[in-house]
Amino acid sequence: MIRPFRLHSAATLAIVAALAASPAAAQDAAPVQNEDGTITTSQEIVVLGGIGYRNRSENEAEPVVSYDSEYFQRFEPLTAGDALKRVPSVTFLSDVIESDGARLRGLPPGYTQILINGEKVPGSNADRSFFLDRIPAELIDRVEIVRSSSARRTGDAVAGTLNIKLRDGYELDGGYIRAGGLLFDDNELEPSLGGVVGGALGPGRFLLGGNFQGRHNPKKKLSLRYGDSPENNPDYATDDFDNREDQRDTREGKDYSFNATYDIKGDSTDFSVNGFYVHTDRTEDERSFEYDDPTAVNGPVRATPPGNLTVDNANVAKINQDNYSVNGKLAHRWSAGETSLKVGYAYFDEDRFETEYEVEFDRALPRFTGDQTRTGITDKEFSVRLEHEVELGDTARLVFGGFWQDKDRDTSITEAPRDRYNLTAADRQGYDQFARNPTEFVRTFGAFVPAVGGVNMIEEKRLDGFVLVEGDMPGVKWEAGVRYETTDLTIDDLTVPAALQRFTNDYDKLLPSASVKIDVGARGRITASAARTSRRPEFNYLSPATLEAELGDNDLVGNPLLDPETSWGFDVGYEQRLGRSGIAGINVFYRKVNDLIELTNTGEEGSEGPGTFVYQPQNIGDGKVYGVEFDLSTDLGFVGLPDTGIFGNVSWLDSKITDEFGKRRFNGQSKYVYNFGLIQDIRSIGAAFGATYRKQGRAFDRTVGEEVFTTYGADLEIFVEKRFGKSFTIRAVGQNLLNGAKRERFNKFTTVEDQIDRNFDEYELEREKAGPVFQLMARYAF
What we know:
This protein is mainly beta and 782 residues long. It contains eight helices and 37 strands. It has one domain: Maltoporin, Chain A (Beta Barrel). Residues 1-33 have low confidence and may be disordered.
């Protein structure tokens, strides 16, 4: 159910009422949104007139790489995350065949600014990132990678910005419907339905869209655990084997999404209002079995070794999410320049109910344990932006303005008292893990109580001011400006002693930036930019609560006085147009990150006694990030193949951080990522086919108590389409055709001394695998 807009949203609607009385707004709409001065028809979206290539941004000085929906559409991505798998420098550490937390330049998701129609949106993640698998790809008009920052936008973009532009009324005339299904490796069939309509309405233009998507992801996991590692013992696999875990992990869900826009372009006044809504019902169902043998499996528990079942575990999480945003903009041109006012409200709500049931059979008295956790997160952002632009002669403009935002985030994590008791002999007799389930042993759980550090309220009020000068001369575009950001932070944690329940903090940052584009030679261009950006602290680090044994046997206490990390960054690139519509580009980037937030040993003894410590996040580190990005997108008309398109990109990524254990890259950064593909259009029979291949390099994470090495298998996708006339297309797509696998290696330690001395508490090898997915999708334009 769509939640009603509150008072904040009413401010946006007030703009509509004010504009309705404006004579300027009543002028006839001028459909000139597209760069070529035309409106896209629904037939052009459904029956593509050609192969989609990446674009070169012409309207701003910043280094922006743009990809229209035509670049992605033929491979039928389900979400914005799926679409972004094909653009430069974006990696994921998601589960197999899922693409949620985008990692631009390979950095953790919190370093990337995610915008929807140029505006920030809240999500559930503690690192402030937004999961892109919440936005259906069908809503996307284009994706922009903004490699450097500008004073126009908030500076939360150390790695860069991903701006997801949704379709609006000035980019579509007519409508289309989309219907089809997805067949998964376990023979599950999920539907996919959608529709979009746009056109003139009164003095302006409108667009309405809706989408329903069945989601399904069946995976299989295998974990092998040992008491030591190959670092210490080459024969660890036989000498130190502890247990094996077989797991079935199925993610099942339904997504419902809607978007709407209304735009009026008058002689002197423009108005627009847009919004989107996404509702997700999702169930994550895991069933795992632990055995005392690396390979053998026995059924009933009473069976003799080898292959005895040691632990039977069932975990079910039910997740409901509501995410919506509404934004209004009023722009007026007058004798002193152009003034614009933007008002926005964004809302995110998640309710997660998770239950874990486990029976431990490797005990003298087998034991049942049940745990229940309920997590509620509500994140609301209300913002107002005021800008004024004035001409400085014929080739330059002065832009200045302010931005105010009120962000409220409420978190509630409650736990039911653990249900634990020993099983009777009758309970265990004849227990067959393939026919029975630990859920049959559950008794009544107690009342939910707050988890330590789990009930808190965070409010951020920020007030920014900015000024910039931009110029547009023949062959040169440039911009230089500065942004001053101030933040007042209030944290209330209801699970700590009264003296610690409320903390306040305030900070301010000065963020200069500059960019230039210079045309050179025959259709070449040099781009260069420099900017200072920031990254705000993670929410889970701000609570003053102490979490016992959170880091191995070490404790973690939050720090509400953390400041943002800051970064100086530089980008230098070159782009060359090729043939009719092709582009080749290379870009070199560098980031110097200061005030890096790292976990620091306070020296206090931890709750587990001697040898353990209390850790706290503090602004004490620094790091460097650098790399090279290359991309190519062109047809082969120069060799007589105008209907053959090729595209590809490769990024070499690296970084350097020094923590208490030594040097490493930023956690989770892959060493490289590349993808390439081709599309062949066969005009004579109205058909096309194509393929893409993608691979990303190994990633490494190191925190107190744990080290993780992650590798992914390659991903191959193929499509075949047939067009019927000017209004109907059928497309078949095969995804994950190489049975993608994710492999992880875990080094686990009890104490910091053990981690330094390489005395393992556990060494684990885990493999997660999923099978191919097949889509059949039809579109009809009207």
